[in-house]
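Annual report, structural modelling task.

Input specification for the magnesium ion complex:
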Amino acid sequence: MAELEQRGDRAPAPSAWEYESAPESREIVKLEERYGLFIGGEFVQPRSGEYYETLDPSSEETLAEIPQAAPEDVAIAVKAAREAFTDGWSAATPAERAKYLFRIARILQERSREFAVLESLNGGKPIRESRDVDLPLAAAHFFYYAGWADKLEYAFPHRQPKPLGVAGQIIPWNFPLLMLAWKIAPALAAGNTVVLKPAETTPLSALLFCDVLRQAELPPGVVNIVTGDGATGAALVKAEVDKIAFTGSTEVGKAIQRELAGSCKKLTLELGGKAANIIFDDCALDQAVEGIVNGIYFNQGHVCCAGSRLLVQESIYEPLIEKLKRRLTTLRVGDPLDKNTDVGAINSRQQLEKIEELVAAGQEEGAEIYQPPCRLPEKGYWFAPTVFTNVAQSYRIAQEEIFGPVLSVLTFRTPDEAVEKANNTPYGLSAGVWTEKGSRILWMAQRLEAGVIWANTYNRFDPASPFGGYKESGFGREGGRHGLEPYLDFDGAEAFGG
Ligand code: NAP
Ligand code: MG
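The model returned the following structure:
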């Protein structure tokens, strides 16, 4: 803390903590110079012959070359998935399918350090988070859905659940392995086969996952991974698949919905958010401050359900903001592989530019900016934790998803006003409520238009709990028994009259 420079703001000086750096070793990760597409259980070179470089966003160092799959590569992957579906996977006993899912879960646990280091290296997120959140949750998802695989007829009694066939799955870069687990685990448990496209900037954990599939002896073709940019994703949407599951931006989600309109392909969309984290004056203030920090600075704010709009009851506005600013001065921004790091690197130059643009818009529109004093590394993509006060609801920083470590603070006087402001958004993914009164939590939860509402906590995930949105945040649920439904056909239901 000694090197911190005090800026011209009223935040109290941080207490004097010195941290030795504690970097996690990269040795455990063995990178290939060039990867292939994972199709039919083998790594194959792309027909396109094209590759791109994937980076470490904290240093801009090239990590490996990744295939850019062309539409014909995607078609080959879909064919492999179709053959695997008809040649055995759909007819495998449910307990047999569960066996593979349990194996995958256990191997992910055994190799969790290797995956955590790779996830931080390729995505920029702090090792503390990839180690303590991404990896345990990814394994937990496979364990959870392994448990459902042989109980589908009990999960959906009298509805004769059947797999759909081939699922095309497209995932973003903010939780690369975890989003893969959210997609693949329920699809396989329900008896489908899969073609998955990871995000362009974070393909490495999905490619290492192929090694886990081989170790688990999953039959070839049941899971196929095609890498590439948005054009590869668009090719997968157009391919001969039975379902598309997409997580990413609302813009691309809308384009996919247009593309699939009128087709028989099923669709689930998990899109953006602009969640309200609502703080009432009777809450436990220090806990709320921790919840606010976790809500917006976790994973650099690259979180669709991030608590990016803070709604504070007017009576506690000043003490709360003071405590929050003081807490921000203790956040350590830097090397994602350092175990002390709280806020890592921004995932890509493109995302950094988007954050910078919206922050500049916030300043131009008249909001007041606060950033704690912190030295950002010279190379790589970085953005200091930021709080905007004096924010009006009409400002872009109160309306648009920033997807970065930027919090916009608004105030309210009554619960009704809090609800009105919280719902004043095209999104509806999540919300947080901080109050000591249980009855108020329930009152709020009934009125907030959000798929997930946390009370006196934030960003808590569990595989047993369904997750998904309202309005422009998308439709369909992932997690829980609900998460199986989009991967099943219930045609037999009519025979039972229900
Ligand atoms: P995105 O373009 O929607 O990316 C999501 C996934 O879709 C990626 O795998 C992407 O490939 C792929 N994709 C892109 N264009 C496609 C198309 N036309 N058809 C099919 N698939 C396509 O999101 P982004 O560009 O990474 O981020 C943009 C903004 O989206 C962020 O700033 C953030 O606001 C929001 N976002 C939300 C979430 C979420 O969890 N809800 C996650 C990430 C981003 P590429 O990687 O090549 O683009
Ligand atoms: Mg994109």
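Residues 127-148 form the longest helix (22 residues).
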